[in-house]
Amino acid sequence: MIKRYFLFLLLLMCVVGSVNAVNPTVPDMCTSTEFYVILSDDTMSQDLVISTLSAYDFSVSAPVISGIDSQTIYFESENDLGRFCSIISTTNKVLPFAGAFDVYKNGERTPMTVILLDGQAYTPYGDSFYQYVDLNMTGSQIGHVYAWISNTYSQNYLTLLLNDATVVSCSGDSSKTQYLSSTFFQNNILAIHWKNLNGYDRLTASIVLFDYVDSATYSPDDRCDFTVSEIYTPPERATIDIYTEPAVDIYNNQNNEFLGTTDNGGYLALPLFLGETTLKFVKDGYWDTLKTFTVTSENNSELIITMAPRNAIFQVSKEFSGNIYPNSVASLSMDVIPVKTAYATKLRVSGVEVNKVYYQTQELPKTADGSYIIGDMSSPQNIVIDFKTTSSWGERAFTVELSATDIEGTAYTNLETINYNVLELPFLFETPDQWAIGSNDVTLTDMSGESYSVLMVLYDESGTEKWSSSTNLLEYCEYTFEVPVEDAGEYTLELNAKSGTVKSYYSIEIIEPVSLISDFLTASPGNVATVQFKISNPTESVKYYTAELSCPFYNETVDKTFSIAPGTVEKTVDISFEVPEGLELEYYQLTLEVFNEGDTEPIYSGNIVLTISTSSLFLASVPGGNTTLILLAAAVLLIAGTFAALRLKK
């Protein structure tokens, strides 16, 4: 009988010791559950995790662990997860592993906030007062409370209240520690009732809420030396605006957690934790689409997902690099995923001027029919299309067609509509009505109200830089660049602003405004010689010019002022001079310069070779030399001689 009694007591002690265990026990076999944490330090070995965890003294209640796998710790229930996420004890007011872990509840990563209440109060004889802590929760929910209270006087009374209901209380000269799971928080207020007869009371409480808490505040009281602190802050989230097909179910691809469904317009605002994440988009009649991207704290982040119907052979996702501005070159990156091996793939772009197409980092040539040959495709590939943007801002669109066949010869066509937004330039750009050889004024005026650097570069048609200049454009101020052009030809003016984030290009064509009819001239001394040239006026206004002819045998230039009507093409202009007698040389070089009215730099400068004729014939000089006139004179003399001979015969 005594032995049986002794065995019963021993068994009872074992049971009691098990119930009141303060150190967690880690089983040999790991049983995964939907309640777990993943430690942030992935360098910790599993043995180190177990030894560290087993050394923690959780006071009155330790969490029940169902297993450990590397840095993942599984718990038997939400209650055990809540206990693990509380402070370890009143003598060790920190979280296990210093709170360096992510929390998962019901298999989904969840936000968590842990509030620590800690301090003491002194009340005079018979005094009683309440202190209220505002938790600022998002709504009613289940929380987990670990509390320790202590009195220093036999008639003291201390109570921690939640919605006027006692959470834990202690009376008399004693202390009490308690862990309360599944505590229902109906509103934001947590009340502490300090009541005693001339003495000190102490309170330490850890409150775990699997949610975001904006702040935890309370009104200070002179009778209290008390702190309220947030010892675990949930990871920051950002809202991503998702645009895709209507009624698309979106999942976290890591754990297949359902996140939401797009509305009838294909839109869903989705709060996501910062960092890299992969979403899965699912809809009947479409191929499932995966998208990996990085969530940042920037506001108004957008994600545009194009889903491929089941009768298409490609899944295509599209992304533009940077902002798009007028008169620029935008870059469209397309990730093309073949659902099955695609053969003889072709790409065709319509509705926009294509600059270049890259496939596997190589530029593709454009074929005679306007398409680009991709070839066979069996794995995900990237295609980049550089295209020229319009000269005006606003919403724009073009189409990209991908055609291919499968191994059975069945033809497929993906027709992708590319929508993009051309942003308004932050500055007003003013150029000359007509670019010309010489200096051309280009004026920029800021319209954004910000200061930023501007770099302007002029390239010739071969891409060689001919000129560049930069300035710091002040808010709402203007700056004029003087762009020099030395020769006629085709040029590109590039504008870079705001550290290269704003780019715009402008094509410039400068036609030679003046051309000599001939650069050779023959004249006799004492005769009048005439230099002829052609000049055009492509503008919409009357243009005024001055022509200056420099002759080595004149001290001054021979000048002529003239005007040209708008839209005139190749008007012939004469400038004449008399060749003086007694010239010693046979050849002279003349220089012709043509100026815009009021300018000191010529728009044209050319040389004419003047040949001095020694013939005694009555020859007048003509443009292009006197050969024609000499032949004509010879013919006249020949005819005259013939008539004279005939007369003598008679």
UniProtKB/TrEMBL annotation:
<feature type="transmembrane region" description="Helical">
    <location>
        <begin position="629"/>
        <end position="648"/>
    </location>
</feature>
<keyword id="KW-0812">Transmembrane</keyword>
<protein>
    <recommendedName>
        <fullName>PEGA domain-containing protein</fullName>
    </recommendedName>
</protein>
<keyword id="KW-1133">Transmembrane helix</keyword>
<keyword id="KW-0472">Membrane</keyword>
